[in-house]
Design goal:
The chain has 65 residues and is mainly alpha-helical. The chain contains three helices and no strands. Helix 2 runs antiparallel to helix 3. It is elongated. It starts with a helix and ends in a 7-residue tail after the last helix.
Length: 65
């Protein structure tokens, strides 16, 4: 929540705002996949989470100009 508020500041570059919002959305999905893996005892969610983590790690603010 604090990070979202910080992103609303005028001095934050637009690409950093877009990058951070996308990062938070993807990381949230990452944890949803892990929760699904535990709740459903299904390893396919771990595989999906791992693939998503690779995408997250590859993202750069410069990709969001």
């Amino acid at each position: 929540d604090a990070l979202r508020k910080a992103l609303d500041k005028e001095f934050v570059k637009p690409e950093w705002k877009r990058y951070t919002k996308k990062y938070m959305e993807m990381y949230n999905m990452f944890w949803v996949l892990y929760r699904n893996a535990i709740e459903e005892a299904d390893p396919k969610y771990i595989v999906q989470a791992s693939e998503l983590k690779t995408e997250i790690n590859a993202m750069r603010p410069s990709d969001f100009k």
